[in-house]
Design goal:
The chain has two domains: 1-83; 104-215 and 250-353, no CATH class. The protein has 15 helices and no strands. The chain is globular and about 65 Å long. It has helices at residues 3-32, 35-58, 63-67, 71-82, 89-104, 106-134, 137-164, 168-191, 196-213, 234-248, 251-270, 276-280, 291-301, 303-316, 319-343. The protein is mainly alpha-helical. This is ICE2-domain-containing protein.
Length: 357
């Protein structure tokens, strides 16, 4: 086996181990100790991720991915140790402030998710327009795929409606969101500032959020109720661990976390292509010199810190709060789309040809 192939396998395994440790350790601490212990672990993991990202930014060595693996169990033991006895007032103050930072960061996380979703939908619309311009044979495929997306989104909303619209306010918000989406789609088509691919992608985004608003709350229980002392017998030990993972990791949080991280990842890849024409004018400026490229590098370098903070914030939210943040996400994204449709220039030039039919 080639050395580089072996090292690549070790590096990827280390990254996967890091992700799994963070996914398990944070709800484990929240379930078995207290919210303060959970906030301490989140703060320690965030600090470690910040240092880790900075070292990668300065050094760029893949060995750091392997070296950080034992750090997470150590930080978990530190958190358990700190709250196994009398807690120092400084720790209480630090965890309290960290909880406030995570709470106040909620709107920014929602805004980033909505902005990234709109950006990805527009990029998919651009790709669809370019394919349709290349060959007419692609047009039928694109129309069928868009129609299928509309059908899936409609079915998704209908299935989620009984649990998503459990109150007059929730049903009103759903009606407002659907009406606004239809009007914006028609206006975008009329002004030739959007296309069917972009609209269908946003319909899926709308259906996804409505589904999360009506996620069956009985699908996950109180995390503390799933914890049991570990027995000496290995089989009950494994059974306890499996039950803990199944009942403690809240499914809506994992779904929201996966989507939010994925959409941020896709958006960060799209950012360097924004304003490409303007940057191509100067022959001395390269791709790496664009501001959006620098922003992408920062986002990808500190993605572990973003992962910890987003996950911690989602775990702190109760089901009711998650629902209202979902509605806020829907309304913000539709508002952002309406502004984008209003300010987009007309015409078929190179910068806007993918936005028109």
């Amino acid at each position: 086996m080639q050395p580089w192939l072996l090292w690549s396998a070790v590096s990827h395994t280390a990254r996967l181990s890091t992700v799994l440790q963070i996914l398990l350790y944070l709800p484990l601490t929240l379930a078995t100790l207290s919210t303060s212990a959970f906030l301490l672990l989140s703060l320690l993991l965030s600090t470690h991720s910040l240092i880790h990202g900075t070292l990668i930014l300065l050094w760029g060595s893949q060995a750091l991915s392997v070296l950080q693996v034992p750090m997470h169990p150590f930080l978990l033991l530190v958190s358990f140790n700190a709250f196994a006895q009398t807690v120092h007032p400084l720790l209480t103050t630090a965890t309290s402030w960290w909880g406030k930072i995570l709470t106040f960061s909620g709107p920014s996380f929602v805004a980033l998710e909505g902005l990234s979703s709109l950006l990805v939908a527009q990029k998919v619309g651009q790709i669809g327009k370019e394919l349709a311009d290349e060959a007419e044979s692609y047009q039928l495929v694109i129309l069928l795929a868009s129609a299928a997306a509309y059908v899936v989104a409609s079915w998704w909303i209908v299935v989620a409606y009984p649990t998503a619209a459990t109150s007059p306010l929730a049903s009103t918000l759903l009606g407002v969101a659907l009406t606004a989406f239809l009007f914006l789609t028609i206006i975008g088509f009329r002004l030739r500032r959007t296309n069917i691919v972009e609209s269908s992608m946003l319909s899926l985004f709308l259906a996804y959020n409505v589904w999360l608003c009506g996620f069956d709350q009985t699908s996950f229980t109180d995390p503390a109720s799933s914890y049991a002392p570990l027995l000496s017998n290995i089989l009950p030990h494994l059974q306890t661990l499996v039950n803990f993972i199944a009942n403690t990791l809240p499914k809506p949080v994992l779904v929201a976390l996966l989507y939010r991280l994925a959409i941020l990842q896709f958006a960060s890849r799209i950012l360097p292509t924004i304003g490409a024409d303007a940057w191509e004018i100067g022959p001395s400026d390269g791709w790496d010199g664009r501001p959006t490229s620098i922003m992408t590098r920062i986002l990808l370098t500190y993605r572990q810190l973003i992962f910890v903070m987003v996950y911690s914030h989602l775990l702190l939210l109760d089901p009711a709060s998650q629902v209202w943040w979902r509605w806020a996400n829907i309304m913000f994204t539709l508002l952002l789309w309406s502004v984008e449709l209003t300010v987009s220039p007309d015409g078929d030039d190179a910068s806007t040809k993918w936005k028109v039919e």
